[in-house]
UniProtKB/TrEMBL annotation:
Transmembrane segments: none annotated. This is CoA-transferase. It comes from the Bacteria. SMART domains: CoA_trans (SM00882). Coiled coil: none annotated.
């Protein structure tokens, strides 16, 4: 019997729970954690979700296992159809894209993400770019943010390079407020912005003014851990809870979908050692 799970499996389960049954859900390139979360949701509590794969734009594919890259047609196996990229953007602009997953090398307190450039006002490093995230972050009904790199290690010069920052050097994907503090509603965007952020240290939601708020921790992390590794003063829920582990059947499903442990490439070596006890709980079913 499976007695424990890894941090990656905990994060996949937390990402899975953000998906609602009946939503049309899309992820971009490159995150095995998110890909697994979508396939687990489809096979458990959200059988009516529409799953659009990142690289292939296949609709409701059922690959036998996760490949080392999402840009592999094996990930399109069993797809009911494939969208063109322009069709995906049209769906989003029409308000039919229920949820998207986004991340960034910087994520600020309003949920803005930066995948364009570091350094302000002068660029110090060019990043890969948004690949359409700028548009989709405005149009998708809901956004789930994630990063497995919340922890800001101290470098050789004694500095911390925060992933969660007060303000992004460049806003690629729009959160709840722009760089000048204007709310996204001022732009008339269709989407409602980030709903959750999941990191390797905790779970966050967003308050009515759009500011990030810590709502839950892992069994082995503390409020002090989260604050120490965040570049601004955290807001916290009145009662900060504990992230629930996945059920045994979900852990078993993740391991069957990812026999190559591809998702562990997204987890830092230090965090690969973390283990969490599973407890008896109601199975997540359709």
């Amino acid at each position: 019997m499976i007695a424990s799970c890894t941090l990656g499996e905990m994060m996949i389960a937390a990402l899975t729970r953000t998906i609602q049954d009946g939503e049309l859900v899309f992820h971009g390139f490159g995150s095995p954690l998110v890909q697994l979360a979508m396939h687990v949701a489809k096979r458990t509590h959200a059988p009516r979700m529409g799953l659009v794969a990142g690289a292939t734009y296949g609709v409701d594919p059922a690959p036998r296992f996760l490949t080392p890259t999402s840009n592999d047609w094996a990930m399109d196996q069993g797809a009911a159809a494939s969208l063109g990229i322009e069709e995906l953007f049209d769906l989003a602009a029409a308000g039919r894209l229920g949820r998207m997953f986004l991340s960034g090398l910087q994520i600020d307190r309003w949920g803005n993400c930066n995948v364009t450039a570091l350094g302000a006002p002068h660029m110090a490093m060019k990043l890969p770019g948004g690949g359409g995230g700028g548009n989709l972050s405005c149009d998708a009904q809901r956004v789930t943010l994630w990063t497995p790199a919340h922890r800001a290690e101290i470098d050789a010069k004694g500095r911390r390079r925060f992933r969660l920052v007060e303000a992004c050097d460049f806003i690629t994907n729009l959160g709840h407020r722009d760089a000048a503090g204007r709310p996204r509603k001022a732009y008339g965007h269709r989407g409602r912005g980030p709903q959750f952020l999941i990191t390797e240290l905790g779970l966050f939601d967003y308050e009515a003014d759009g500011h990030m708020r810590l709502v839950a921790l892992y069994p082995d992390t503390t409020i002090e851990d989260a604050q120490e590794n965040t570049g601004f003063a955290l807001r916290m829920a009145d009662r900060v809870g504990v992230i629930a582990p996945p059920t045994r059947s979900v852990v078993d499903l993740i391991r069957k979908l990812d026999p190559l442990r591809v998702h562990e490439k997204e987890i830092r070596p230090l965090d690969l050692k973390r283990r969490f006890d599973l407890v008896e709980q109601r199975e997540e079913r359709a």
